[in-house]
Amino acid sequence: MNLLSIGASYRTADVAALERLAIPESAVPELLQRLVAQPYVGEAVVVSTCNRVEVYAAVSGFHGGLGDICNVLAEHSGIPANELAGHLYVHYGEAAVQHSFRVSSGLDSMVVGEAQILGQLRDAYHAATEVDSAGRLLHELMQQALRVGKRAHAETGIDRAGQSVVTAALDVAADHLGGDLSGRPALVIGAGAMGALSVATLTRTGVGPLRITNRSLERADRLAEAYGAVAVGFEELETALREVDIVVSATASTEPVLTRARLEAALAARGGAAHPLVVLDLAVPRDVAPDAADLPGLVVVDIDSLAASRRALPAAAETAAVEQIVASEVDNFLGWLRGAEIAPTVAALRTRAEEVVSAEMRKLVSRRPDFTEEQRADVSRTLHRVVQQLLHSPTVRVRQLAAEPGGDQYAALLRELFDLDVPLATHANAVPEIGGKA
């Protein structure tokens, strides 16, 4: 099996496409099961966030795996496969390893260095573990990706400013509200992970008074209590919109929460363009209805506009330091992978040796029927010890050599020299690297 990652992100797709591709948390288990039921897909992990949807898979062939995964994504999203292809990036073998480590360390995030992706990757890995769609290869990849992400944040200053999608959105909001957001009344719609991050960031920035609303008032109450905010019922949304300057909307709704009619009424009560309302729409699918964007006095900051702004990038030295960590960890992972790939060949060699010993023992017993059971056992043990001693050093050494770049050739030589029949998966270094749009 080999690694394949396929996805779409803010780099390759607009919000409209990401909305259609987005996978609700409740739908992830079923999608994972559909993926591993495909002929070429043996393992799968699905990551779906506000600005990326990715599948990490262990596949038995590149083209077959690519086709299987694209078909499942096309069926899920309703986007025809030929149209979907224009939004996807593809990484195979070593490139897939590198991509996963860049994602976990925040290098591929809209706001470079943000740490939220680590939690999202961890959740995706746990979801795959729950339905048993992650096998040995993806267990190792996900565990190492999480470790690389933690190392990047611990050893460099890439997240020293505490940047996230929320802070980047607030920077854009500040441009429309005179530059200083402290003391500005705000409303957060949604009490999930992104909503909680928004509340924490707004509180730290000095925005307030702060209100929180959610379809489940109980969740809004808990979040409000933790940050000294005020929870309001979802039925009070229209009233709250009239009394705040900033709205952060981050729900999991499949339909727009902030409709044109709802926003139009709120803006009219506020005095229209004289008192602008800035809405940070961090949801995928979008919470703000597309037909509301042109309302006078309304400023909508969504994922697309954030992608265009590319705010709060860390210093080049910090990015370079993380890139160096990623490169080193990719080499380590590939060494482990090469070592793991030679294991079937070594096992086959030892099995062949055991078969030779057994065959010779049968010949000896037929020639010397006078041997007692004890004598036969002594001879058998001696032969096995000789074989094990002869094979020990070569097999240890070949494992070491296999972990080095180009190490797959040693497994091939063993198979050729001893005429070993080993069912082979696709090897990471024996295939061309295929990288899609970054």
Automatic annotation (TrEMBL):
Pathway(s) where this gene product acts: Porphyrin-containing compound metabolism; protoporphyrin-IX biosynthesis; 5-aminolevulinate from L-glutamyl-tRNA(Glu): step 1/2
Enzyme Commission number: 1.2.1.70
Alphabetically ordered keywords of this record: NADP, Oxidoreductase, Porphyrin biosynthesis
Domain of life: Bacteria
Glutamyl-tRNA reductase N-terminal domain: residues covered: 6-156
InterPro entries reported for this sequence: 4pyrrol_synth_GluRdtase, 4pyrrol_synth_GluRdtase_dimer, 4pyrrol_synth_GluRdtase_N, GluRdtase_dimer_dom_sf, GluRdtase_N_sf, NAD(P)-bd_dom_sf, Shikm_DH/Glu-tRNA_Rdtase
A Pfam entry, by short name: Shikimate_DH
Binding site for NADP(+): 190-195
Chain residues that bind substrate: 49-52, 109, 114-116, 120
Record-annotated Tetrapyrrole biosynthesis glutamyl-tRNA reductase dimerisation domain positions: 322-420
Subunit structure: Homodimer.
Function field: Catalyzes the NADPH-dependent reduction of glutamyl-tRNA(Glu) to glutamate 1-semialdehyde (GSA).
Protein family (similarity comment): Belongs to the glutamyl-tRNA reductase family.
Name under which the protein is recorded: Glutamyl-tRNA reductase
Organism per entry: Actinoplanes missouriensis (strain ATCC 14538 / DSM 43046 / CBS 188.64 / JCM 3121 / NBRC 102363 / NCIMB 12654 / NRRL B-3342 / UNCC 431)
